[in-house]
């Protein structure tokens, strides 16, 4: 379905570069018309969107508030201080650094703060639901450091802390990561902390996916247990594409020095401002309601999918995310994801634990409810969403494009009934 050429929404851009303006307008329409189920995506508010595009873009600000290497920072210092203050208050941490450009550089800064090349790090294996930067081999973290991976049990799809403890005692890591990108269950931060203390490791909780749920009280907080908390600022937190590192006071200097000058130069001040706005929004009662609704929608969707015979890794979800093994449906994940995309349902194909297929052509798909919840779509609509997924996955196996087209029209009707926030449409 082609998008209308609404470049008038951005007149200066349209005049300067109509080709890019047209693509931006097409993306706005695509985000408005499709059911976005990628768990790492969301809709930011108009306020966050505006903050991301301000004249703060014009500034260089190497250093930290009150200790810059450039003059003219009297406004920037206040913006960054406000963002850090709000992060500390929202998450209840001693120290917050809001300068990391994104989640991967934030995690790299943790390595720089605590490890030397060749030191051992224990993290969740990527095929089991972890992240590249938790020591996986193709990442710099697995190239410069010795990565050891833990997984999940075949029978439950959940992390086995006994296995984690055995690995930690055998490998003696200096750094342990908990969290990941395809973890549908509550993370036992206290259990990980006990293991980290036993082997003398620094515990890092990567809550990039669940930060908004933690802030909204819909997931336990790692703060009482972890030495460092790493997070992106988008996903469930509904902020811009950025990151934060939060830690105990004893680690503040090491973390700050690792971010700057260790890994990067001047922060992206327009992003820092948008982070500040998002953190203020996340401190409201309305955001707490949103976070709990994300989980309620995910659980309802999982129940509806399970009732239709879908195999949910770990049997369901405690958070915003569902990982679906399509082996029993005789449809590869990539084939299903592309058919769903044609139907206006945006997911990503994903490996599942112990997947016999290759990562670029895996057995599963990963879905989540942050974006649809931001649109105000309630639990009562999850039956329709599950039915659409069921129909399209079946159609993907049989080559039934007529069904895909019908579902696309039905999806569009629901999206029209629940307009997306923050999009400059009208």
Automatic annotation (TrEMBL):
Q: Which SUPFAM superfamilies match?
A: PLP-dependent transferases
> What Enzyme Commission number(s) apply to this enzyme?
2.1.2.1
Q: Which reactions appear under catalytic activity for this entry?
A: (6R)-5,10-methylene-5,6,7,8-tetrahydrofolate + glycine + H2O = (6S)-5,6,7,8-tetrahydrofolate + L-serine
Where (6S)-5,6,7,8-tetrahydrofolate binds, per the record, is at 126, 130-132, 249
Write down the position(s) of the site called Plays an important role in substrate specificity.
234
Q: Name one Pfam family in it.
A: SHMT
**May I have one GO cellular component term?**
cytosol
User: What top-level branch of life does the organism fall under?
Assistant: Bacteria
UniProt keyword list:
Amino-acid biosynthesis, Cytoplasm, Methyltransferase, One-carbon metabolism, Pyridoxal phosphate, Transferase
Q: Which residues form the Serine hydroxymethyltransferase-like domain?
A: 14-389
Q: What class of enzyme is it?
A: transferase
Which of the residues bear the PTM N6-(pyridoxal phosphate)lysine?
235
Function recorded in the entry: Catalyzes the reversible interconversion of serine and glycine with tetrahydrofolate (THF) serving as the one-carbon carrier. This reaction serves as the major source of one-carbon groups required for the biosynthesis of purines, thymidylate, methionine, and other important biomolecules. Also exhibits THF-independent aldolase activity toward beta-hydroxyamino acids, producing glycine and aldehydes, via a retro-aldol mechanism. Thus, is able to catalyze the cleavage of L-allo-threonine.
The Swiss-Prot or TrEMBL record describes its family as follows:
Belongs to the SHMT family.
* Name this protein carries in UniProt: Serine hydroxymethyltransferase
Q: Which gene encodes it?
A: glyA
């Amino acid at each position: 379905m082609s998008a209308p050429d609404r470049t008038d929404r951005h007149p200066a851009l349209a005049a300067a570069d109509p080709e890019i303006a047209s693509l931006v307008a097409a993306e706005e329409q695509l985000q408005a018309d499709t059911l976005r189920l990628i768990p790492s995506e969301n809709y930011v508010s108009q306020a966050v969107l505006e903050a991301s595009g301000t004249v703060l873009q014009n500034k260089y600000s190497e250093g930290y508030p009150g200790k810059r290497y450039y003059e003219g920072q009297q406004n920037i210092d206040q913006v960054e201080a406000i963002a850090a203050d709000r992060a500390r208050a929202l998450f209840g941490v001693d120290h917050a650094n809001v300068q990391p450009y994104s989640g991967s550089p934030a995690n790299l800064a943790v390595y720089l703060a605590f490890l030397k090349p060749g030191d051992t790090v224990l993290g969740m294996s990527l095929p089991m639901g972890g992240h590249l930067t938790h020591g996986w081999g193709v990442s710099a973290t697995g190239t410069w450091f010795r990565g050891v991976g833990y997984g999940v049990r075949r029978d439950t799809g959940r992390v086995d802390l006994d296995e984690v403890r055995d690995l930690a005692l055998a490998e003696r890591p200096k750094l342990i990561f908990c969290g990941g990108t395809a973890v549908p269950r509550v993370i036992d931060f206290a259990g990980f902390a006990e293991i980290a203390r036993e082997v003398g490791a620094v515990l890092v909780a990567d809550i990039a996916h669940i930060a908004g749920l933690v802030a909204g009280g819909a997931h336990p907080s790692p703060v009482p247990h972890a030495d460092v908390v790493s997070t992106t600022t988008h996903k469930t937190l509904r902020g811009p594409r950025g990151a934060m590192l939060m830690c105990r006071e004893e680690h503040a200097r090491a973390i700050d020095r690792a971010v700057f000058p260790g890994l990067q130069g001047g922060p992206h001040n327009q992003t820092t401002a948008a982070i500040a706005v998002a953190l203020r929004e996340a401190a409201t009662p309305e955001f707490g309601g949103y976070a709990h609704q994300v989980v309620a929608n995910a659980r309802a969707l999982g129940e509806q999918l399970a009732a239709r015979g879908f195999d949910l890794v770990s049997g369901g979800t405690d958070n915003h995310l569902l990982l679906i093994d399509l082996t029993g449906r005789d449809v590869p994940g990539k084939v299903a994801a592309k058919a769903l995309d044609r139907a206006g349902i945006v997911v990503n194909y994903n490996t599942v634990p112990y997947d016999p297929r290759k990562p670029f052509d895996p057995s599963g798909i990963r879905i989540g409810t942050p974006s649809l919840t931001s649109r105000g779509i309630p639990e009562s609509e999850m039956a329709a969403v599950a039915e659409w997924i069921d129909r399209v996955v079946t159609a993907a196996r049989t080559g039934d494009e007529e069904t895909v087209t019908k579902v696309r029209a039905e999806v569009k009707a629901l999206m029209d009934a629940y307009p997306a926030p923050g999009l400059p449409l009208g």
